[in-house]
């Protein structure tokens, strides 16, 4: 089973020979190593790069255990480079290499070496890379399988594919498993034995139980406005525990740095300014979220919203939660202030889209509710509502594009219908 990851492969190919260290990041088990050691290596061989000019070192392999010693590794690389042709150095789990920052900087000074590395999130985060390789590293962040990538290997129609994807998500090792029981078991194991243990160990979290309880609360509230103060109050009222706002903030930062969750900040569309709090959180993989709550609190409308958010990130957009503030007088002449929400404000270069996620629009009243905020935006950028089922995309008489979730996810140009 080989997934179509041409989107990220193309991005990686574009970075060849740019004089920087190519650093591939992403949540654990999303396919970083596969992209580098399978797909990218295949590309190199198909473009006449000789096998002995591709130097592969997976540091987590017992076979390469001695290579973790920088005093052994650097001379090993130098010995492999025997002519003036370009050499491609592919390093996996590079955080296991001693003094890896200094070694990588030394490799950069080899004129005919093009260096590519991956690392596990818990010890090789995007933030770390920015600090250690400022101006010398070029990051490629990859995601779990999008729905369109998932469907390239799913044996069935898109409706059955959706039912599976919305439950178990797009982590490649999970997708490959044949039964729901196996998928569920692996998702739970990954969350507990890999992600949580990594974070707890890296940050020396003393109270693992309260950290896990925060994860449970966030899992139960995807797409809901919240902030650290509100989460602290939730612990007091429901868990009977006192946890400081600073601790909550730290826990959330750890989860974000490990690429498990993302924060969507609120943006005042009319005032053209960001609002610090509250904000929303979405899971990088919905399967992990569902496993965390034991698949009990499965609400397809919220999961669909999370998947739309992830797809927009996958396509390279900066995504915020929009608000449209309105001031008007009530029947007594009193001035009242209201805020209408736009699920997503999406920006990329000069493009902007306003997108609502609506599981269904069964009648005119629901249509009025979903379009209310969009119609109050007084600019000319495209406004879109994505619904679960829609036979074919169409425009309302107010110029709002209505499209189904399948058209949106399976067509890379869907926003330009």
Topology:
Layout: H1 6-14, E1 21-25, H2 32-46, E2 54-58, H3 70-80, E3 87-92, H4 100-108, E4 113-118, H5 126-132, E5 137-141, H6 147-151, H7 158-168, H8 172-175, H9 180-203, H10 208-219, H11 228-239, H12 245-257, E6 261-268, E7 273-283, H13 286-292, H14 300-314, E8 318-329, E9 335-348, E10 351-358, H15 364-372, E11 382-387, E12 394-395, E13 401-404, H16 405-410
Parallel strand pairs: 1-4, 1-5, 2-3, 3-4, 6-8, 10-11, 11-13
Antiparallel strand pairs: 6-7, 8-9, 9-10, 12-13
Describe the protein's architecture and organization.
This protein is an alpha/beta fold and 417 residues long. It has 16 helices and 13 strands. It has helices at 6-14, 32-46, 70-80, 100-108, 126-132, 147-151, 158-168, 172-175, 180-203, 208-219, 228-239, 245-257, 286-292, 300-314, 364-372, 405-410, and strands spanning 21-25, 54-58, 87-92, 113-118, 137-141, 261-268, 273-283, 318-329, 335-348, 351-358, 382-387, 394-395, 401-404. The strands form two sheets. Strands 7-6-8-9-10-11-13-12 form an eight-stranded mixed β-sheet, with helices on both faces. A five-stranded parallel β-sheet has the order 2-3-4-1-5, with helices on both faces. A hairpin with a 2-residue loop joins β9 (335-348) and β10 (351-358). α1 crosses α2 and α7 (158-168) packs across α13. The longest helix has 24 residues, at 180-203. It starts with 5 loop residues before the first helix and ends in a 7-residue tail after the last helix. The mean pLDDT is 93.
């Amino acid at each position: 089973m080989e997934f179509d990851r041409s989107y990220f492969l193309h991005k990686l190919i574009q970075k060849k020979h740019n004089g920087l260290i190519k650093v591939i990041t992403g949540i654990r088990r999303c396919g970083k190593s596969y992209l580098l050691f399978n797909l990218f290596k295949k590309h190199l061989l198909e473009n006449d790069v000789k096998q002995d000019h591709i130097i592969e070192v997976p540091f987590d392999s017992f076979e390469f255990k001695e290579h973790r010693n920088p005093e052994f590794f650097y001379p090993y690389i130098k010995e492999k480079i025997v002519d003036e042709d370009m050499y491609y150095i592919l390093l996996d789990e590079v955080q296991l290499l001693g003094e890896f920052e200094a070694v990588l900087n030394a490799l950069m000074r080899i004129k005919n070496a093009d260096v590519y590395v991956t690392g596990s999130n818990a010890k090789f985060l995007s933030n770390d890379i920015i600090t250690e390789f400022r101006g010398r590293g070029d990051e490629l962040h990859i995601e779990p399988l999008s729905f369109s990538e998932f469907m390239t290997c799913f044996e069935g129609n898109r409706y059955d594919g959706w039912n599976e994807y919305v439950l178990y998500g797009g982590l490649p090792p999970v997708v490959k498993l044949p039964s729901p029981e196996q998928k569920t078991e692996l998702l739970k194991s990954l969350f507990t034995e890999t992600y949580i243990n990594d974070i707890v160990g890296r940050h020396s979290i003393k109270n693992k139980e309260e950290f896990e309880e925060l994860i449970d609360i966030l899992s139960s509230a995807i797409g809901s406005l919240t902030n650290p103060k509100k989460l602290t109050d939730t612990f007091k009222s429901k868990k009977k525990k006192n946890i400081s706002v600073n601790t909550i903030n730290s826990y959330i930062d750890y989860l974000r740095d490990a690429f498990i969750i993302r924060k969507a900040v609120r943006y005042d569309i009319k005032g053209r300014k960001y609002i610090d709090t509250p904000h929303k959180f979405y899971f990088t993989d919905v399967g992990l979220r569902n496993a965390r709550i034991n698949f009990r609190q499965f609400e397809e409308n919220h999961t669909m919203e999370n998947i739309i958010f992830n797809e927009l990130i996958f396509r390279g957009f900066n995504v915020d939660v929009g608000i449209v503030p309105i001031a008007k007088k009530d029947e007594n002449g009193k001035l009242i202030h209201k805020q209408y929400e736009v699920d997503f404000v999406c920006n990329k270069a000069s493009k902007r889209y306003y997108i609502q996620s609506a599981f269904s629009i069964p009648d005119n009243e629901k249509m009025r509710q979903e379009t209310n905020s969009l119609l109050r935006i007084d600019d000319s950028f495209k406004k879109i509502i994505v619904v679960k089922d829609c036979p074919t995309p169409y425009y309302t008489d107010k110029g709002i594009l209505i499209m189904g979730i399948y058209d949106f996810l399976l067509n890379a140009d869907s926003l330009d219908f």
